[in-house]
Q: What sequence folds into this?
């Protein structure tokens, strides 16, 4: 399974990757500041948007992409590794 994490990845990229692998996910991470990051999302099973670390326009682009590709979205306010882990664990248990 593949998760897209948008926002808050600057200092936590390595930790997020480890947390994703712990729950059987590969992770695609974007700060939300990249030009045309939506084109690089590809096929995802889950999208996590860290709302306090991403602009409204990037959030809206990501949401439109997720809706048009039937990708479940979870929006998080906190960018901590435990918040990411809890969301991944919840999704993994619900979909097994």
A:
């Amino acid at each position: 399974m593949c998760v897209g994490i948008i926002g808050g990845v600057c200092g936590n990229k390595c930790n997020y990757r480890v947390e994703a692998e712990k729950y059987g996910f590969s992770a695609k991470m974007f700060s939300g500041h990249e030009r045309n990051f939506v084109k690089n999302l590809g096929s995802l099973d889950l999208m996590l948007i860290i709302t306090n670390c991403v602009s409204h326009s990037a959030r809206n682009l990501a949401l439109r992409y997720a809706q048009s590709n039937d990708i479940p979205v979870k929006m998080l306010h906190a960018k901590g590794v435990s918040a990411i882990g809890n969301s991944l664990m919840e999704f993994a248990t619900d979909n097994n």
In short: Strands lie at 2-6, 26-30, 46-50, 73-76. The chain has a mean pLDDT of 90.
